[in-house]
């Protein structure tokens, strides 16, 4: 059989197997399958795969799964209570290392935003109020 006829036939094997081809097209495929062993084998594999898929079943969902999902959805859909930062701070206690780290961070932030005058190069940064150069 010619390569083109085999290619055409194999493109139509799924429709042929499902009975969705016209009578004339189906007869042409049947004639080709009688004459071509390679396409006959491909059609057999296709039919076997189709049977396998048809017999496969999805496993049943565990009992109570649907109810648990619906319950969780209802619980998460409820509005969250407002966060009380005063209550959160009331119980907060800093350890010595945390306090030292916080103080260091505050010093760093302060020097970044307000600058350390002795480390500034002359003429850099803000100019003197009302000054002209
Ligand atoms: Zn063929």
Question: What is shown here, in short?
Answer:
The protein has 133 residues and is mostly helical. It is built from 7 helices and no strands.
Please give the structural blueprint.
Elements: H1 3-11, H2 13-17, H3 23-35, H4 37-55, H5 65-77, H6 85-90, H7 96-114
Bound molecules: zinc ion.
Zinc ion is lined by residues 1, 6, 9, 32, 36, 38-39.
Give your account of this protein's structure.
The protein has 133 residues and is mainly α. The protein has a domain at 3-55. The protein has helices at 3-11, 13-17, 23-35, 37-55, 65-77, 85-90, 96-114. The radius of gyration is 39 Å and the shape is elongated. The chain starts with a helix and ends in a 19-residue tail after the last helix. The model has no long low-confidence stretch (mean pLDDT 83). Bound molecules: zinc ion. Zinc ion (ZN) binds at residues 1, 6, 9, 32, 36, 38-39. Residues 1, 6, 9, 32, 36, 38-39 line the site of zinc ion.
Choose one word for the global shape: elongated
The succession of helices and strands, N to C, reads HHHHHHH
Number of helices: 7
> Roughly how many Å apart are the termini?
94 Å
Cofactors and ligands: zinc ion
Report the sheet with the most strands, covering strand number, pairing sense and barrel closure: none
Structural class: mainly alpha
- Average pLDDT confidence is 83
Low-confidence stretches: none
Percentage of residues in DSSP E strands: under 5%
Number of strands: 0
Kindly provide the radius of gyration, computed on alpha-carbon positions and rounded to a whole number of angstroms: 39 Å
Helix content: 55-70%
